[in-house]
Design goal:
Elements lengths: L12 H24 L3 H12 L5 H8 L3 H13 L3 E5 L7 E5 L1 H22 L4 H21 L6
Antiparallel strand pairs: 1-2
Helix pairs in contact: 1-5, 2-4, 3-4
């Protein structure tokens, strides 16, 4: 007879990371939406394109690790709102590039201070050493998750 393993959800790291991510995202999403009418996927698309103008939707999807449908909806909403523009690549007419418009850049410039202030408030209880350790741990775990890929049932 094999011993049956027990999962203690509150101690399960993937669950704890998900709860933390959802809690932080929800808290900050309220401010983004109230002030700018932005959803979290829309903000993430804008943030990625502010740092990397000219990406395709597929590249934005890869960089954000969001579902491609969520990215597609966010891009469509941002295009309709005049916050993004889409151009066709001259070398490959099937490929499109996305970039913030002037209006999108203005919104981005207003959201960034809010986002950074929230981050500062969130990490206030941590020392500089703890922040450095957290950063290292997050990089290691992300790398390992990418290395492992999707979980497979055995």
């Amino acid at each position: 007879m094999t011993r049956r393993e027990t999962l203690h959800l509150e101690a399960f790291l993937p669950y704890r990371l998900s709860v933390l991510s959802n809690t932080v995202s929800s808290a900050i999403a309220a401010a983004y939406f109230a002030n700018f009418g932005l959803s979290i996927p829309e903000w993430r698309v804008m943030a990625v394109l502010a740092a990397n103008p000219g990406l395709s939707s597929a590249e934005v999807t890869a960089r954000t690790a969001m579902d491609k449908v969520a990215v597609s909806r966010a891009v469509a909403t941002l295009l309709a709102a005049g916050r993004l523009r889409r151009t066709t690549a001259p070398a490959d007419r099937r490929r499109t590039h996305l970039a913030l418009t002037k209006a999108g850049t203005r919104v981005y410039a207003q959201v960034v201070p809010m986002a950074l202030k929230y981050e500062r408030q969130l990490v206030t209880p941590l020392s500089k050493s703890e922040l450095a350790t957290l950063d290292r741990i997050l990089r290691v775990l992300l790398g390992r998750a990418v290395e492992l890929g999707p979980a497979h049932v055995q």
